Amino acid sequence: MTRTGLERVARGEVTSLRGRRVGLVAHPASVTSSFEHASSVLARAGAQIVAYFGPEHGFGGEAQDMIGVGDARAPDGAPIHTLYGDSFASLSPTPAQLADIDALVIDLQDVGSRYYTFVWTAALCLEAASALGITTVILDRPNRLGGVVMEGAPQRDGYRSFVGLHDVPVRHAMTIGEIVTMVATSRGIAREALEIVTMEGWDATRGWDLPWVLPSPNMPTLDTARVYPGGCLIEGTNLSEGRGTTRPFEIFGAPFVDGRALARDVVIEGATLRPLTFSPTFHKHAKTVCGGVQVHVIDEARFAPYAAYVRMLAAIARAHRADFAWRTERYEFVDHVPAIDLLCGGPEVREAIDAGADVDAILDAERDAVARFGEERRAWLLYPR
Questions:
Q1: What would the 3-class secondary structure string for 111-152 be?
Q2: DSSP-derived 3-state class of residue 31
Q3: What are residue 358's phi and psi, to 5 degrees?
Q4: Model pLDDT, residue 202
Q5: DSSP assignments along 46-87, one per residue
Q6: Nearest alpha carbon to residue 227 among 119, 308, 346
Q7: Which phi and psi (to 5°) does residue 143 adopt?
Q8: Is 13 helix (H, G, I), strand (E, B) or coil?
Q9: pTM of the model
């Protein structure tokens, strides 16, 4: 079994935190394979936790997506600072919050998609801590989707946001430690400002061999993580992405969607589309019967989630031109840029779907950009590929 960075601390293999005043950036999935939380592991290792920091969804993981979280107090009396409030500035720790800290320890479980904001929380923490001469310590964890297959072109100027602060593919095939190493390099941050407690035994071709703890309210299972690099695109539309159901991102649709036609007309390699009706208990189309599909992944090696959901969006837009629409509300602290463009990293997918064009041409061009990134990322990899 993979030994995460936290597992190595728990086993006594890491002694650099002993006697140091630390801030801990963590969430409910910051646990060992026996479900001991990072807070107790660090205390046993001799660290003095003087502050806690919660990313999007909060330190306890209670908040829904894009809901600001307030500061609180932990049972031990230490402050819990939010790193997801009501502005972009709230995403970074402040100098006052870092004032009494020798090291900022980050233990966050990512799911392998650029949209999932925990990697960008880690990047912003590194930048804030390094500016004050504070060391950032990353306790590395596996990428649920493995470390080999990538999808979806890196974004570019004008399309960076909290769902992609630095230019990586949608399915990036990197660990949080590798991405933060990339950020440190691109920002010219001194090497001594970042310490990575690497994993042992992780097989990048396999991805995941640990117990699953949901890292956010709508990432309940490994199946959710499989589809998420595509399923999150639904957030950029007026379709329900399945929030308010027990299978978010796997289930999606809207009152106007004909799930049977979608399942009949779109063939997804490595997956079966099962038509269904559902009624979300909250979020988009709450308490309204929706038509749609559930995406059942039957062969993960052949399933390409980003391409699959782009094709399904194109099919729905063609079939329901009068009802389908792109999200226009503010998204992740960005105004005046469509959410779907922020998610895709540019306007090409939206423009192609609006024009009724073949999205496969866009997907082919994105594969070329991904291949170029694959060559660039070699400098930041911490594990064999």
A1: CCECCCCHHHHHHHHHHHHHHCCCEEEEECCCCCCCCCCCEC
A2: strand
A3: -75, 115
A4: 95
A5: T-EEEEEEE-TT-TTS-S-TT-----EE-TTS-EEEES-SSS
A6: 308
A7: -85, 120
A8: coil
A9: 0.96
For residue 338, the model assigns a pLDDT of 98
Report residue 177 as tokens.
């430690």
Q: What is the DSSP letter of 228?
A: H
Q: Which residues contact 182 (CB under 8 A, 6 or more apart)?
A: 166, 168, 174, 377, 380
Residue 19 has pLDDT above 90, yes or no: yes
**The two structure tokens encoding residue 166:** 């630095």
Give the three-class secondary structure for 164: strand
3-class DSSP state of 22: strand
User: How many separate helices (H) and strands (E) can be counted in the chain?
Assistant: 10, 10
CA distances from 164 to 171, 183, 223, 224, 341 (A): 11, 12, 23, 20, 11
The tens digit of pLDDT for each residue in 27-77 reads 999 999 999 999 999 999 999 999 999 999 989 988 788 778 888 898 899
Residues 85 and 76 sit within 8 Å (Cβ to Cβ): no
Are 55 and 49 in contact by the 8 Å Cβ rule? The answer is no
Which of these, 88, 83, 85, lies nearest to 161 by C-alpha position? 88
What mean pLDDT comes out for the span 148-152?
Answer: 97
> Which phi and psi angles does 17 have, rounded to 5°?
-95, -10
55's CB contacts (< 8 A; 6+ apart) are 25, 27, 83, 84, 108, 117, 118, 121
Return d(Cα 186, Cα 345) in angstroms, integer. Answer: 19
Q: Cite the beta strand spans of the chain per DSSP E.
A: 21-26, 48-54, 72-73, 79-82, 103-107, 135-139, 194-197, 251-254, 271-278, 290-297
Q: Which of 106, 176, 102, 107 is nearest to 132 (CA)?
A: 102
Starting from the edge strand earliest in sequence, which strands make up the sheet with 48-54, in order? 72-73, 79-82, 48-54, 21-26, 103-107, 135-139, 194-197
